[in-house]
Amino acid sequence: MAPRKLYVGTKLRELRTRIGLTQKAFAAKLGISLPYLNQMENNNRPVSTSVVLAMASEFGFDVTELSTGDAERMVTDMSEILSDPIFAEIAPPLADLRLAASNAPALSRAFIELHRAYRQTHERLASLDEVLGQEATNLQPSPWEEVRDFFHYCDNYIDAVDRAAELFASTVDGDILRAGNLKFELQFTDSKNLRRYDPVSNALRLAASALPSTQRFQLLHQIALLEQNELLEATLDLARFQTDAARHIAKIGLANYFAGAALMPYAKFLQAAQSTRHDLEQLADQFGASIEQVAHRLSTLQRPGAKGIPFFFVRVDQAGTITKRHSATRLQFARFGGPCPLWNVHRAFETPGRFLRQLAETPDGVRYISIARDVSKPGGSFTAPTRRYAIALGCEMTHASALVYADDLLPASPQAFEPIGISCRICPRRDCHQRSVPPLESKLSVDHDQRGTLPYTVE
């Protein structure tokens, strides 16, 4: 594929404003004319290589911050929203969406939030589960969605929390479950609760039946709540959540983030990931973590100046519902419907305990390698239910040589890449044998005298 031109006018303006320079002074520092800078800041011209190098040398700017990840995520979200039938006659072209995401990101986010409010209201009215005259707070995003989007647009990397966890990990000598300098009493019980802290006795009780990786994670989660509370609250203040419920849920997410980052400290884990070529089982053994914890941590390695491979990570239940999702790649997950059934993550339930590999290509022509595995979680007794999930971790093929899972798949013929999409409602593929609903933005033709793969033809 031809390299995509980089339009980052918003980030250029942010850098100039941050260092307190006028356009004229900034242009002089970069060695370019004032009109040229003005054109780049307004996204009338792409940023040039010489300007990127000048930004790095003159201001120490981390060029990895010029990633178009946020803009691509918003373009994907807006494309899916505009497949709604209410936009059938007025949906703008993809080029306009890219301009909006690059030039007016705040407006693009507002549009996404507005459609979310419309969708929620429509669903509530259709199901008659709300009464007329209920408070207008119903138009707000659900707390879970608000928190999900917070991590989504932070690239799933929270720098202050990550560095605090890394610093804490440097003070732990050996296994955290056997550390002698904990500020509370650690107990193991037969309780069904994974974790329970009693502030009166200053005792933390963990389930004895839980796996050691789960016990370590829950212990570090409680340490985050007790010893890093000020940092967590400051981060929540910056996020400006709309509801108390969202803030409380986000605090759990931040404590989980701290736990994963302390269990797998950034620099040490990044080095190990590179040396093992991202072998999830080796990394799990080395850091005393679970396969899911390792896969999730790999998707967070986006520290400026020390980024790992940009991965996507997703967890689904047996119904195909996405329960965790993040993407540092151009691949984005469906926000308003089910994921593509052709992803290998859905087949992982059929082969428990095994990694499934998949070469895939999305409608935009980008190719990926993906690995999937079930991560079912036993309940701890014969009568307790088992929670069944599957995870997928993947990256673009340009990084495949750094993955042990790709060794015997390279080089691969074009026919080896399975065509996948984001969700049926926005996928443009015309002859997909797994299509569940027709694409909303396309016209259909029905011929009663013939039948192909589908009972209709997508025009």
From TrEMBL:
<keyword id="KW-0805">Transcription regulation</keyword>
<dbReference type="Pfam" id="PF06114">
    <property type="entry name" value="Peptidase_M78"/>
</dbReference>
<protein>
    <recommendedName>
        <fullName>HTH cro/C1-type domain-containing protein</fullName>
    </recommendedName>
</protein>
<feature type="domain" description="HTH cro/C1-type">
    <location>
        <begin position="12"/>
        <end position="66"/>
    </location>
</feature>
<dbReference type="InterPro" id="IPR018653">
    <property type="entry name" value="ScfR_C"/>
</dbReference>
<dbReference type="GO" id="GO:0003700">
    <property type="term" value="F:DNA-binding transcription factor activity"/>
</dbReference>
<dbReference type="InterPro" id="IPR026281">
    <property type="entry name" value="HTH_RamB"/>
</dbReference>
<dbReference type="Pfam" id="PF09856">
    <property type="entry name" value="ScfRs"/>
</dbReference>
<dbReference type="InterPro" id="IPR001387">
    <property type="entry name" value="Cro/C1-type_HTH"/>
</dbReference>
<keyword id="KW-0804">Transcription</keyword>
<dbReference type="InterPro" id="IPR010982">
    <property type="entry name" value="Lambda_DNA-bd_dom_sf"/>
</dbReference>
<dbReference type="InterPro" id="IPR050807">
    <property type="entry name" value="TransReg_Diox_bact_type"/>
</dbReference>
<dbReference type="Pfam" id="PF01381">
    <property type="entry name" value="HTH_3"/>
</dbReference>
<dbReference type="InterPro" id="IPR010359">
    <property type="entry name" value="IrrE_HExxH"/>
</dbReference>
<comment type="similarity">
    <text>Belongs to the short-chain fatty acyl-CoA assimilation regulator (ScfR) family.</text>
</comment>
<dbReference type="GO" id="GO:0005829">
    <property type="term" value="C:cytosol"/>
</dbReference>
<dbReference type="GO" id="GO:0003677">
    <property type="term" value="F:DNA binding"/>
</dbReference>
<keyword id="KW-0238">DNA-binding</keyword>
